[in-house]
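PROTEIN DATA CARD
Card holder: dITP/XTP pyrophosphatase
Chain length: 201
Origin: Marinitoga piezophila
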Amino acid sequence: MTIYLATGNKHKVKEINEIKPKNIELRGIFEIIKGFSVNEDGKTFIENSIKKAIEAATLLRMPVIADDSGLEIDILNGFPGIYSARFMEGKSYNEKMKYILKKLNNVPYERRTARFVCVATYYDPKKNLLFSVEGEVKGKIGYSISGKEGFGYDPIFIPDGYTISFGELGQEVKNKISHRKRAFEKLFRILNNITTIEKNS
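Structure generated from the sequence above:
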Protein backbone atom coordinates (compact mmCIF):
# COMPACT_ATOMS: atom_id res chain seq x y z
CA MET A 1 0.00 0.00 0.00
CA THR A 2 1.37 3.40 -1.02
CA ILE A 3 0.25 6.41 0.98
CA TYR A 4 1.33 9.99 0.44
CA LEU A 5 2.21 12.29 3.30
CA ALA A 6 0.80 15.80 2.98
CA THR A 7 4.00 17.59 3.97
CA GLY A 8 6.87 19.41 2.35
CA ASN A 9 9.15 18.51 5.25
CA LYS A 10 11.60 15.84 4.06
CA HIS A 11 12.86 15.31 7.63
CA LYS A 12 9.33 14.37 8.69
CA VAL A 13 8.93 11.93 5.80
CA LYS A 14 12.22 10.26 6.72
CA GLU A 15 11.25 10.02 10.40
CA ILE A 16 7.83 8.51 9.71
CA ASN A 17 9.33 6.03 7.23
CA GLU A 18 11.48 4.72 10.07
CA ILE A 19 8.33 4.15 12.14
CA LYS A 20 5.95 2.65 9.56
CA PRO A 21 5.12 -1.06 9.07
CA LYS A 22 6.90 -2.87 6.22
CA ASN A 23 3.70 -3.37 4.20
CA ILE A 24 3.19 0.39 3.76
CA GLU A 25 5.19 2.61 1.45
CA LEU A 26 5.19 6.28 2.40
CA ARG A 27 6.08 9.10 0.04
CA GLY A 28 6.03 12.85 0.34
CA ILE A 29 3.39 14.71 -1.65
CA PHE A 30 6.21 16.92 -2.99
CA GLU A 31 7.19 13.98 -5.25
CA ILE A 32 4.00 14.66 -7.25
CA ILE A 33 3.02 18.25 -6.45
CA LYS A 34 5.69 20.88 -6.09
CA GLY A 35 5.05 23.56 -3.50
CA PHE A 36 1.95 21.96 -1.98
CA SER A 37 0.70 24.06 0.92
CA VAL A 38 -2.46 24.53 2.94
CA ASN A 39 -3.66 27.63 4.75
CA GLU A 40 -3.44 26.29 8.31
CA ASP A 41 -6.11 28.51 9.81
CA GLY A 42 -7.45 25.98 12.31
CA LYS A 43 -7.40 26.72 16.02
CA THR A 44 -6.21 23.24 17.02
CA PHE A 45 -3.76 20.60 15.81
CA ILE A 46 -6.63 18.32 14.81
CA GLU A 47 -8.36 21.00 12.71
CA ASN A 48 -5.18 21.70 10.76
CA SER A 49 -4.36 18.01 10.38
CA ILE A 50 -7.81 17.20 8.97
CA LYS A 51 -7.75 20.18 6.63
CA LYS A 52 -4.36 19.19 5.19
CA ALA A 53 -5.44 15.55 4.73
CA ILE A 54 -8.71 16.42 2.97
CA GLU A 55 -7.16 19.00 0.65
CA ALA A 56 -4.25 16.74 -0.30
CA ALA A 57 -6.37 13.61 -0.80
CA THR A 58 -8.95 15.48 -2.85
CA LEU A 59 -6.15 16.76 -5.06
CA LEU A 60 -4.45 13.37 -5.47
CA ARG A 61 -7.65 11.28 -5.44
CA MET A 62 -5.93 8.69 -3.30
CA PRO A 63 -5.33 7.99 0.43
CA VAL A 64 -3.27 10.59 2.27
CA ILE A 65 -1.87 11.01 5.76
CA ALA A 66 -1.35 14.48 7.18
CA ASP A 67 -0.15 15.54 10.57
CA ASP A 68 0.03 18.73 12.53
CA SER A 69 2.47 18.86 15.37
CA GLY A 70 4.16 21.32 17.65
CA LEU A 71 5.66 22.23 20.97
CA GLU A 72 3.52 23.45 23.86
CA ILE A 73 5.23 25.15 26.81
CA ASP A 74 3.07 25.30 29.92
CA ILE A 75 4.41 28.50 31.48
CA LEU A 76 3.94 30.28 28.13
CA ASN A 77 0.26 29.20 28.00
CA GLY A 78 0.94 26.56 25.37
CA PHE A 79 3.07 28.77 23.11
CA PRO A 80 4.19 28.23 20.35
CA GLY A 81 1.60 25.43 19.92
CA ILE A 82 -0.05 25.36 16.49
CA TYR A 83 2.27 28.18 15.43
CA SER A 84 5.43 26.15 16.14
CA ALA A 85 6.47 26.06 12.48
CA ARG A 86 5.09 29.48 11.55
CA PHE A 87 5.98 31.96 14.26
CA MET A 88 8.98 34.15 13.40
CA GLU A 89 8.35 33.12 9.78
CA GLY A 90 11.47 33.25 7.67
CA LYS A 91 13.74 32.77 10.68
CA SER A 92 15.70 29.60 11.37
CA TYR A 93 14.79 27.16 14.14
CA ASN A 94 18.02 28.16 15.82
CA GLU A 95 16.72 31.73 16.08
CA LYS A 96 13.30 30.52 17.24
CA MET A 97 14.89 28.40 19.97
CA LYS A 98 16.99 31.34 21.14
CA TYR A 99 13.81 33.42 21.36
CA ILE A 100 12.07 30.75 23.46
CA LEU A 101 15.07 30.36 25.78
CA LYS A 102 15.10 34.12 26.29
CA LYS A 103 11.39 34.03 27.20
CA LEU A 104 12.20 31.35 29.79
CA ASN A 105 15.16 33.20 31.24
CA ASN A 106 15.27 32.78 35.06
CA VAL A 107 12.45 30.18 35.00
CA PRO A 108 13.56 27.24 37.21
CA TYR A 109 13.88 23.82 35.60
CA GLU A 110 10.90 22.28 37.41
CA ARG A 111 8.63 24.95 35.89
CA ARG A 112 9.91 24.54 32.33
CA THR A 113 7.41 21.75 31.58
CA ALA A 114 6.39 21.20 27.98
CA ARG A 115 5.11 18.61 25.57
CA PHE A 116 5.43 17.76 21.91
CA VAL A 117 2.05 16.98 20.33
CA CYS A 118 1.28 15.24 17.05
CA VAL A 119 -2.17 14.73 15.53
CA ALA A 120 -2.13 12.44 12.49
CA THR A 121 -5.08 12.11 10.12
CA TYR A 122 -5.78 9.46 7.48
CA TYR A 123 -8.23 10.24 4.68
CA ASP A 124 -9.28 8.02 1.79
CA PRO A 125 -11.55 10.06 -0.52
CA LYS A 126 -12.80 7.02 -2.46
CA LYS A 127 -14.03 5.25 0.68
CA ASN A 128 -14.87 8.49 2.48
CA LEU A 129 -12.84 7.16 5.40
CA LEU A 130 -11.35 9.70 7.78
CA PHE A 131 -9.90 9.30 11.27
CA SER A 132 -7.42 11.14 13.49
CA VAL A 133 -5.17 10.08 16.36
CA GLU A 134 -3.00 11.98 18.82
CA GLY A 135 0.37 11.27 20.39
CA GLU A 136 2.39 13.25 22.89
CA VAL A 137 5.66 13.16 24.76
CA LYS A 138 6.16 15.21 27.90
CA GLY A 139 9.37 16.81 29.04
CA LYS A 140 11.06 20.08 29.88
CA ILE A 141 12.80 22.87 28.04
CA GLY A 142 16.53 22.88 28.67
CA TYR A 143 18.69 25.91 29.34
CA SER A 144 20.57 25.78 26.04
CA ILE A 145 20.49 24.49 22.47
CA SER A 146 22.14 21.08 22.71
CA GLY A 147 22.76 18.49 20.02
CA LYS A 148 22.52 18.38 16.24
CA GLU A 149 20.26 15.35 15.76
CA GLY A 150 16.60 15.54 14.78
CA PHE A 151 15.04 18.79 13.59
CA GLY A 152 12.86 21.67 14.75
CA TYR A 153 12.91 22.19 18.52
CA ASP A 154 14.59 18.86 19.32
CA PRO A 155 17.79 20.51 20.68
CA ILE A 156 15.96 22.29 23.54
CA PHE A 157 13.46 19.57 24.50
CA ILE A 158 14.45 17.10 27.21
CA PRO A 159 11.94 14.21 27.37
CA ASP A 160 10.85 12.91 30.76
CA GLY A 161 13.15 10.16 32.01
CA TYR A 162 16.21 11.62 30.27
CA THR A 163 18.76 14.29 31.10
CA ILE A 164 19.70 15.29 27.54
CA SER A 165 17.72 16.69 24.62
CA PHE A 166 16.20 14.94 21.60
CA GLY A 167 18.96 16.67 19.67
CA GLU A 168 21.53 14.73 21.69
CA LEU A 169 19.64 11.45 22.10
CA GLY A 170 19.55 10.84 18.36
CA GLN A 171 16.93 9.51 15.97
CA GLU A 172 16.97 5.91 17.18
CA VAL A 173 15.93 6.85 20.72
CA LYS A 174 13.54 9.56 19.52
CA ASN A 175 11.74 7.11 17.22
CA LYS A 176 10.94 4.91 20.23
CA ILE A 177 9.34 7.60 22.41
CA SER A 178 8.39 10.61 20.30
CA HIS A 179 4.96 12.18 19.89
CA ARG A 180 5.06 11.30 16.19
CA LYS A 181 5.94 7.67 16.96
CA ARG A 182 3.01 7.39 19.37
CA ALA A 183 0.51 9.01 16.99
CA PHE A 184 1.56 7.04 13.92
CA GLU A 185 1.67 3.74 15.81
CA LYS A 186 -1.99 4.27 16.66
CA LEU A 187 -2.82 5.29 13.09
CA PHE A 188 -1.13 2.27 11.50
CA ARG A 189 -2.76 -0.06 14.04
CA ILE A 190 -6.23 1.27 13.16
CA LEU A 191 -5.45 1.13 9.43
CA ASN A 192 -4.26 -2.47 9.75
CA ASN A 193 -7.47 -3.43 11.60
CA ILE A 194 -9.61 -1.78 8.92
CA THR A 195 -7.68 -3.54 6.14
CA THR A 196 -8.03 -6.90 7.90
CA ILE A 197 -11.79 -6.46 8.32
CA GLU A 198 -12.17 -5.49 4.64
CA LYS A 199 -10.23 -8.57 3.51
CA ASN A 200 -12.37 -10.86 5.66
CA SER A 201 -15.71 -9.33 4.72
